[in-house]
Amino acid sequence: MQGLLLGIKLVTCVSLILFSVSCYNMVVRSEEAVDNTQNGGSSSPPLKTDKNPNIVTDKTSALTVVPDSEDDDATVTTEEEGAPDFSNLDVFYPTKDWQEVKPGQAVPKGLHIRLNMDTGQREAKLMEGDGGLKYWSQEGKQGIVNTEKKLFTPEDLKKALKEFRVNKIDDEDTERMEEVKKKYKSYDELKKDLEGLQMNIKTDRETVLELTSMLNSSSLDTTERVDVMETLLDYLHQIDNAILFCDIGGMKLVIKNLNDSNAEMRSISSAILATSLQNNPKVKVYCIKEGVLHHFVRALSTEAELPVKKKLLFALSAMVRNFPYAQTKFGELGGFSVLAKLFTLPGTLEEATKLSERTLTLVVDLLDEHQSVTKDNKHHSSEELLTQYQNFPLLEHLLQNGFCEIVGNLLENIPQREFESTIEVILKAAMKLKDSCFQQFKEHTVKFKSLHDNLLKLYHQDTELDFYRDLSEVAKKLYLFLMEKDEL
User: Fold this and answer.
1) First and final C-alpha spacing in the chain
2) Cβ contacts of residue 47 below 8 Å, gap of 6+?
3) pLDDT tens for each residue of 275-313
């Protein structure tokens, strides 16, 4: 009996010892797992694979979700990447540099994608400043790639799993894309259709080069050359096209054609210069070097055709505006004397008035420009630009060429109706010149008074036309100025 009790006690002691050893092992393993997690996840947490849910892998992996059922439940799998080379994967791994997208690769959303015209291959890269997790979907699988580092920490996995449902790519997107493809033709189909129509699409550069080559051809007659230049006119309003036209020598031909015996050729040449010179500093410098101001001064003084003269004046205006060096050269060539003669040309009242209005508008704009730089300096011009304007005696050129008398004569001889825009320009010029032209303007004091009364009367006939009221106020200011100045 005692032997039986002793055996029971021995078995009990051995059981207790084995149980204690087992508990100790469990505690040690738990502490090791906690330490690994706290050390930044250096050991990848166990991940179930789609082949065996009990297999654990610590290799660098790309996370994949495969839906199991229609209720959106999913299992997480990993696609093992034994080497750091990601080029052979079924999922495109984006970087900041362009890389070729191989056929069959799933491309994550939100990338910059292009077609390399040299190789004919599709390429992709990350958008500027982009990164982090990128989602992809292909053939029933959805996944994430980490563009910042080629592995997933436990925190990355938790974040990815939370966002999978939010960023889930469903079949509706695929169906929508298929519907769009059915509605519209692909690029290859459109290209094939255009080839059937024998349409040859060219860039602006190619067109300008071709037209300039035609312009250089001696086989074209005058009518054909005019047609070519009219086509060029549609392209040269673009700054880059106009610069290219200068670089390949086309503008030299246009400047030369200002002396052509054919009026149509002179007209289209003036129009091309006007279009190309507008707000294009490089073309302005080029034309200055080619001596275009000499051609303008000569053509304006000798041109007999009024339509051509108007276009020449337009081209001159585009050349000298906001270009004090060109204004100085124009003055040295006697350009303001030529402008003064434009006010005395023969022709009908309407023709003479319109040409005078355009010429005086250029003068007023130059006066405004000089005042804004030398006095107001609203645009904070550089010292060099300010010096150029100060060294150009614009007002002196105008006074020497009789613009005080010109403004007074225009005021006396232009009808008050149907030429309101001309009256506006005359009053603006008078306001700019009133201090320097007082002696000439005082002879027209009564005219300023009558002009004020008539404009005010027109305003009262239709009070919605503030234009007449504003003009009447300018005429009144000039009248009062002349009266006060004369009394002194």
Assistant:
1) 150
2) 56, 57, 61, 76, 77, 78, 157
3) 999 999 999 999 999 999 999 999 999 998 999 999 999
